[in-house]
Amino acid sequence: MKPLGRLRLGVNIDHVATVRNARGTGYPDPLRAALLAEVAGADGITAHLREDRRHIRDADIDALMAGISIPLNFECAATTEMQAIALRHRPHAVCLVPERREERTTEGGLDVAGDEARLADHVAPLREAGIRVSMFIAHDPRQIEACARIGAPVVELHTGHYCDLHEEGRFEERDAELEKLREGAALAHSLGIEVHMGHGLTYETVPPVAAIPQVMELNIGHFLIGESIFRGLSEAIEEMRRVMDAARPGLDG
Ligand SMILES: CC(=O)[C@@H](O)[C@H](O)COP(=O)(O)O
Ligand SMILES: NCC(=O)COP(=O)(O)O
């Protein structure tokens, strides 16, 4: 199968806010990073307003909505508070993610199959407001099928475990995990769902994921913000764009 189209890059600027908040200063500014990302070739900006506001804060979402001209993918938990914020701002997309207060980062995907009725009710007003709703899930077929049943137009498959296995040098297990991601992408696409992927991706782990033909968008943050310490944010993003394009043959441009 040929790739379905040009792969979009969503740049997640959460960890600019992590650095800012570590010192309680007003800098570095996530909006400034987003504007730079836009010029460097990002197709969208992703920001995760965690319930504990450990990085992105409400004022950052206000500033991003007012300041950027590429789509904002607003990541949040499926709570009443976050739904109200999303409905007030009406970003291009909302990506619903699981959250546990004590986790270091997003562990696992949203349990759509186990919370189907509530999530269907949660998603409906967002969709009615014209927001593209995405569910951040594991590649589990049960979860993908549940997303189809509740009418989610997009899933973002969690690549964190695949990336961890790569970093730990457990290559056979990594390749098995990659195969599950491939199968998940094919299943979601066959059910009419647009497929995104993200979490923990790096220059090394992106190529096989970018080569999955059904994948339309990657959301990448932590690695790019880290890499920007060494080569600057613009160059870090431009290099990611090159890596993605090189792994996506068969397109005219
Ligand atoms: C859902 C997800 O993967 C992102 O929100 C991203 O990883 C943000 O970083 P933290 O998980 O550190 O909040
Ligand atoms: N949804 C995943 C995301 O936005 C980026 O995750 P990471 O690259 O910061 O781990």
From TrEMBL:
GO terms, molecular function: pyridoxine 5'-phosphate synthase activity
InterPro entries given in the database record: Aldolase_TIM (IPR013785), PyrdxlP_synth_PdxJ (IPR004569), Pyridoxine-5'_phos_synth (IPR036130)
Pfam families: PdxJ
Annotated keywords: Cytoplasm, Pyridoxine biosynthesis, Transferase
Pathway(s) where this gene product acts: Cofactor biosynthesis; pyridoxine 5'-phosphate biosynthesis; pyridoxine 5'-phosphate from D-erythrose 4-phosphate: step 5/5
Record-listed 1-deoxy-D-xylulose 5-phosphate binding positions: D14, H15, R50, H55, T105
GO biological process, one term: pyridoxine biosynthetic process
TM region(s), chain numbering: none
Site (Transition state stabilizer): E156
Residues reported to bind 3-amino-2-oxopropyl phosphate: N12, R23, G200, G221, H222
Enzyme Commission number(s) of this protein: 2.6.99.2
Catalytic activity: 3-amino-2-oxopropyl phosphate + 1-deoxy-D-xylulose 5-phosphate = pyridoxine 5'-phosphate + phosphate + 2 H2O + H(+)
Enzyme class label: transferase
GO CC aspect terms: cytosol
Subunit relationships: Homooctamer; tetramer of dimers.
Family: Belongs to the PNP synthase family.
Functional summary from the UniProt entry: Catalyzes the complicated ring closure reaction between the two acyclic compounds 1-deoxy-D-xylulose-5-phosphate (DXP) and 3-amino-2-oxopropyl phosphate (1-amino-acetone-3-phosphate or AAP) to form pyridoxine 5'-phosphate (PNP) and inorganic phosphate.
Protein's name in the database: Pyridoxine 5'-phosphate synthase
Organism listed in the record: Aliigemmobacter aestuarii
Gene name linked to the record: pdxJ
